[in-house]
Write a structure and sequence with these properties.
Blueprint (H helix, E strand, L loop, with lengths): L1 H10 L21 H8 L15 H6 L8 H11 L6 H6 L8 H4 L7 H29 L8
Helix pairs in contact: 1-7, 2-7
Length: 148
């Protein structure tokens, strides 16, 4: 979700590009208040975000799909037969994962003193990566698959 809104913010409203996100697990029930507030510090309103689960149709219609972590990339390859790059590959030319908070911090909901700074660091990393993402995006993009 953070990458979706960070990319939208640098592209602008009139970019003529559709940017969306989808997860590999059941969607949560919205954006956490402290995550929303952190994005608002960058003048980016993520409150309209509607989480959804990745589908074959979403992948078929995408010119570029990226995974944040290796387990996301592996899940997409295994369940959808599609190879996708990692965010860090596109944004920073580095084959490194960007783990979700639940992957990085055990029992993160009980460890908010570690979880909140970690999430803020990930959000900052994503925004910092947008210039490189935009620059390298064409090299990773492909035409959307024909609809069947």
């Amino acid at each position: 979700m953070s990458a979706e809104y960070a990319l939208r913010s640098v592209l602008g409203i009139d970019a003529g590009v559709t940017v969306s996100s989808a997860g590999i697990a059941e969607p949560p029930h919205g954006v956490l208040d402290w995550v929303r507030d952190y994005h608002l510090q960058r003048q980016v309103d993520v409150s309209p975000h509607a989480p959804r689960r990745l589908t074959h149709e979403i992948l078929r219609s995408a010119t570029l799909a990226v995974a944040m972590s290796t387990n996301h990339r592996d899940h997409v390859a295994e369940h959808f037969g599609t190879a996708v790059p990692l965010f860090n590959e596109v944004a920073f030319a580095r084959n490194e994962a960007l783990p979700d908070v639940h992957e990085a911090i055990e029992n993160w909901r009980q460890n908010m003193d570690r979880a909140v700074p970690y999430v803020y660091q990930v959000i900052d990393h994503i925004y910092d990566g947008m210039p490189g993402f935009l620059e390298r995006m064409p090299a990773f993009s492909r035409p959307p698959a024909e609809k069947q």
